[in-house]
TrEMBL record:
The keyword Nucleotidyltransferase does not apply. GO terms for molecular function: ceramide 1-phosphate binding; ceramide 1-phosphate transfer activity. It is a peripheral membrane protein. Gene3D superfamilies: Glycolipid transfer protein. This is Ceramide-1-phosphate transfer protein. Belongs to the GLTP family.
Amino acid sequence: MAHGDDTYNLKEVLVTFKSCLNDKQEILMDPYLEGWKGLVSFLNTMGAIFSFVSKDAVSKIQIMEDFRSSDQKDHYETLQSMVSYELKNGLVDLKKTGVYPTSGCRTILRLHRALHWLQLFLESLRTSNSESRTSLLCIDSYNASLANYHPWIIRKAATMAFYALPARETFLENMKVGTIEEAVAMLGEALPSIVQIYDITQALYAQHNLLDLP
Ligand SMILES: CCCCCCCCCCCCC/C=C/[C@@H](O)[C@H](COP(=O)(O)O)NC(=O)CCCCCCCCCCCCCCC
């Protein structure tokens, strides 16, 4: 996985999401977190204006990595095993924040909602044309997804930061996957696995009534 800025290649990051599913269609925690870490590295190349976003993502990734290096690590091997372990042992605050403010279930839910934003944003980036403004694509995908879970002050800060995004062609070049056309083609290849991971997680959380965890 390329995390250094000069060898940075978003293709590797998005391909990591492809390796998240095992043969039982369960989502493997380690590559899932690895994918997020790669996205955060990319976000860090977009400037300090996004540091409040990357800090929050990093702290959530860290919570999950701590579970993966704890005595309970085997229970956190997949999203499915995490849900069943935490629910069975009463380790999730279901109605309001209490004893378990940083459960795996609520932490992954935040990343899962952000994955929906990513899916919408990448899809609009892929299907837009050279006239499109990245900032507006980003604002639209944010408003259709994550914004619904954020208070006014975060929405305001996020929207202001989006205006600092580079133009579409520069953005696609920054992905370091070759020409604009190659970058667009790569998005088309990577998106189905992101959609699949999102859909499987959404169904898992819906099945256990976990979509509104505080
Ligand atoms: C192209 C760059 C745009 C990046 C925009 C990302 C979406 C904006 C998210 C704004 C989050 C603001 C920070 C605070 C969030 C928290 O309040 C909030 C709730 O947490 P809590 O319940 O523990 O309090 N946290 C969250 O919703 C989780 C946010 C996680 C955001 C991860 C974003 C990673 C972005 C990676 C960008 C990669 C772009 C790749 C494009 C080719």
